[in-house]
Amino acid sequence: MPNATVPCQYRTGRTLGSGTYAIVKEAIHIKTGKYYACKVINKKLMEGREHMVRNEIAVLKRISSGNRNVVTLHDYFETAHNLYLCFDLCTGGELFDRICAKGNYYEADAAALVRTIFTAVAYIHAGGIVHRDLKPENLLFRTPAEDADIMIADFGLSRVMEGGVGGDKLSLLTEICGTPGYMAPEIFKKTGHGKPVDVWAMGVITYFLLAGYTPFDRESQQAEMEAIIAGDYKFEPHEYWANVTPTAREFIQACLTIDPDKRPTAAECVEHKWLASATPHFVPDP
Ligand code: ADP
Ligand code: MG
Fold first, then answer.
1. Is 224 a pocket residue for ligand 1 (Cβ < 6 Å)?
2. What sign does the CA torsion over 14, 121, 221, 156 have?
């Protein structure tokens, strides 16, 4: 099939990935020859939910390019049928695939990665934004290199918190959203949620990085939800955790604190002793 021409300026190529509402394609900007990732969102599929996309755009405009570990939105346009968002192209794939390929991460590598992601999470939180869908499928590597920058992508479910900077407790969000395995207990309890949900999700991601499987995986979604609400997880089976330090476990436990008020903030997590000594890997700017 011939490549479609995205309104005049871009030509789209292979599909990079797809999610609930969108297909993400590689796109070349014809004039400059530069490559981007173009998120193509079908308006029909989004009917009634267009506000989610407009929200994503508003969020990205606010925070894009302010942090090297958050994907930059370069361009946005729409046609009668589709919405198009052009981002930095990340060619290194999803963190999810790297975890699956490796089995699990060495603790020092995991700590460096988690520190980098948490620093970016603290940055978006400082801007008054909650991501709400942090998971290894939404964390992308900029290049295929082993030490490539990791990027937070997919702000489709994030919200600019009313009240702006610092406005988290006042404007509690109540609708159920996100991906079950990474969702914090307060989301299921519908008691309102804010920035602490991202810290919880990071706890689940850290567990996954170190063990190669997620902590609340159960035979049904109902059982999974009950386990999350009860904070019911273990550092087992033993052989997967034998080489993991108590400091790493304590870090995960802190992130997976059931009460969101008692959970550390992202900024506090960066200062946690498990991460404080981790050296974030940086690829020098070209
Ligand atoms: P959805 O909201 O539908 O989940 P995402 O923004 O997460 O959409 O994109 C879906 C998938 O497309 C991602 O999981 C990833 O594999 C791929 N993708 C998204 N953005 C980029 C990008 N900037 N560079 C490369 N691949 C991307
Ligand atoms: Mg996604």
1. no
2. negative
